[in-house]
Amino acid sequence: MLPKVLALVSIGRHPQSGRERRAEQDGRAVEMGLCLQERQLMHLSVAHAGNADSSVLRQYAGMGLSKLSVLAQQANEDVLSPLIDYVEAQQASMVLMGVRSEMGQSSGMLPYLLAERLGWPLLPRVAEIQSIEEGVAQVLLALPRGQRRLVSVALPFVATLDNAAKAPRQTAFGPGQRADIEVINTTSIADEVAAQWQFTPAKPRPKRMKVVKAKTAADRFKAATAKPVGGGGKVLKNETVEEKAQAIFDFLLEEKVIR
Amino acid sequence: MTEHEDILRRDPRAEWIARNRLHPLHQAMTQVSAVVRGPSGLIRKNPHQVGFIGPNGIKRIDRLAGNGQTATGAKRRSSAAQEVTLPLHQVVEPNAYIIVVPDMAGGRLTAQDKDILGLAHELAKQRKALNADENLAVVAVCFGESKEAQFDEAGVDRLIHLLSAEYEGFAPEKRLQALLQIESIYQPKHWLFPDSVHGGTDLALRLAVKLDERPAAQAWQVSIDTTTCRAASGSQDIQRETPRILMILEECGQAIDETRHEVLPLALEVESSVEVRLEDKGLIAVDPNAVPLAEAEFILSAGNGIHNWQQFHDCAALLGATEGASRVAVDDGYMPRMRQVGASGTWVTARVYVAVGISGAIQHMQGIGQCDKIVAINTDAGCDMVKRADLAVIADSEEVLAVLCRLAQQHTGKTLEQTETTSEVSHVA
């Protein structure tokens, strides 16, 4: 019996048109689950908490899922406790999802709350799961500037996926329509704190101006026209080639770009 | 007597001499009286007498009025500017705290960190205006080794520096435990985190879950009562009361630049009893040419001065650098278009940029504007790239690269065959 991986998906928002779509990172979570399933490491199930009628769920199902579970919820309801019940009922040992939702509050709290309530560790911004052996997973985390960090963690755990993870596969319309969408009725808990918040269309953020704190007109003129120069760089001219190359190499070592 | 001195009197003779350029006293008279009063007492300027005759007989006008900078004057001026000490902002016996947990990416405060420290002071000022008894200090919590030397100018009143090796690298559990301890001791009014991929968001959310708070994520307008945060992938704003834990976007505060701060250490005894379930196995070597050029950390860039291209690719592979190129190298077909740096190419953000045989056309210099450190290898000592560089080497690129390759091999113990997989990518032109 393979351990279970649960991918939690949400409804995404297209950045230009604003239409509903597969969420970028949630699509990657399903993709990673499918890859784990194809490698015979885990068994994938996919769940969504929200509206069961959304056509986007068919897009997820079109990635090659035969079944998709929906925890029926209204908007502005707290999905946390139904999700915890569901994860426990499924006996999943890994939960994958995106970092932030593309709709709603996008606070990114859900994976952390889930991990805390379940008592599981959380891995942020996963790029790849390299192996799962004897219940210990070797996971690559995505760092800025394209770097990767290897972390080993015992199952079960919650992970959020970075955009560096493998892009989701294409969805097929027919299989998506034929997939079975199972609706699970849950108790609803209204989010009363967020009900007091005001949601408005985003205002453009002010751009930062370059403030020149010059005392004299000459300084202002210089600030407006001067080319940015490093100023006081070291120039090696008459040394031997060996010395020059050594100087560059030492500089690179000092800046820690050569490991 | 003094009354008489106030009366402005004309001197017709002097005026006559001033008008008569052939008068033997004309030079002396006009030189002396730089300021000429008109009959009504107004200062009159004679446009014909502005300036002086330069050494080659051409009239020069100095409009800088003493602000001009000669070569020596510039140096003196800049050294004087450095010596200016900003006023010290002191917080004596603070009774409340605002805690900032900067990213310290690369061991230094990032621009976002500095903005957030500025924002923390802004919040402190607003709180002080409401409640004068509150003596707020801005505390920075810094994990692991730091290269930052200017905490004082960034606005850190108190510093909690957890230097122990267990906080280095990826250690969210250890860091969280330290933050929880700080929470229990100091009871800060606000926790400010950068909303960034460097780990600020992760730590903030972990803390928020532990403290059972509802943090403001992607906050961009913060005052002590209300906070505006982005939501729904940037398409909506949420306006809410300001929570204790805030994750703040870039450029949302003004960095401190007019005061110095004390940077006094705050003691913190951390009991290390936390169970570590995430085991850090360290950074993984990645193919440098698979990293997008725009976010590569270390770029070796080639220009017109490169003749031995195979050697350049080998050198990049050995040093583990991402390859870049100037427009000339791309147009000549030696490098693919995707490697072009500068206008009509990629604007790079590398920490270290090594320009080999690139003299620095303005279009190229625009593209490397955000790089921290520039190293130039060039035969022309007067070129713009050498002027911009932090370290410039005037030599033939082929010889320098040959020695660099050898040094890199000695350092890593790697031979070229072992790194061959990385260099293959670069040959796709």
Automatic annotation (TrEMBL), chain A:
<protein>
    <submittedName>
        <fullName>Electron transfer flavoprotein beta subunit</fullName>
    </submittedName>
</protein>
<keyword id="KW-0813">Transport</keyword>
<dbReference type="GO" id="GO:0009055">
    <property type="term" value="F:electron transfer activity"/>
</dbReference>
<dbReference type="Pfam" id="PF01012">
    <property type="entry name" value="ETF"/>
</dbReference>
<comment type="similarity">
    <text>Belongs to the ETF beta-subunit/FixA family.</text>
</comment>
<keyword id="KW-0249">Electron transport</keyword>
<dbReference type="InterPro" id="IPR012255">
    <property type="entry name" value="ETF_b"/>
</dbReference>
<feature type="domain" description="Electron transfer flavoprotein alpha/beta-subunit N-terminal">
    <location>
        <begin position="11"/>
        <end position="196"/>
    </location>
</feature>
<dbReference type="InterPro" id="IPR014730">
    <property type="entry name" value="ETF_a/b_N"/>
</dbReference>
<dbReference type="InterPro" id="IPR014729">
    <property type="entry name" value="Rossmann-like_a/b/a_fold"/>
</dbReference>
TrEMBL record, chain B:
<dbReference type="Pfam" id="PF00766">
    <property type="entry name" value="ETF_alpha"/>
</dbReference>
<dbReference type="InterPro" id="IPR001308">
    <property type="entry name" value="ETF_a/FixB"/>
</dbReference>
<dbReference type="GO" id="GO:0050660">
    <property type="term" value="F:flavin adenine dinucleotide binding"/>
</dbReference>
<feature type="domain" description="Electron transfer flavoprotein alpha/beta-subunit N-terminal">
    <location>
        <begin position="98"/>
        <end position="280"/>
    </location>
</feature>
<dbReference type="InterPro" id="IPR014730">
    <property type="entry name" value="ETF_a/b_N"/>
</dbReference>
<dbReference type="Pfam" id="PF01012">
    <property type="entry name" value="ETF"/>
</dbReference>
<protein>
    <submittedName>
        <fullName>Electron transfer flavoprotein alpha subunit apoprotein</fullName>
    </submittedName>
</protein>
<comment type="similarity">
    <text>Belongs to the ETF alpha-subunit/FixB family.</text>
</comment>
<dbReference type="InterPro" id="IPR014731">
    <property type="entry name" value="ETF_asu_C"/>
</dbReference>
<dbReference type="InterPro" id="IPR029035">
    <property type="entry name" value="DHS-like_NAD/FAD-binding_dom"/>
</dbReference>
<keyword id="KW-0813">Transport</keyword>
<dbReference type="InterPro" id="IPR014729">
    <property type="entry name" value="Rossmann-like_a/b/a_fold"/>
</dbReference>
<dbReference type="GO" id="GO:0009055">
    <property type="term" value="F:electron transfer activity"/>
</dbReference>
<dbReference type="GO" id="GO:0033539">
    <property type="term" value="P:fatty acid beta-oxidation using acyl-CoA dehydrogenase"/>
</dbReference>
<keyword id="KW-0249">Electron transport</keyword>
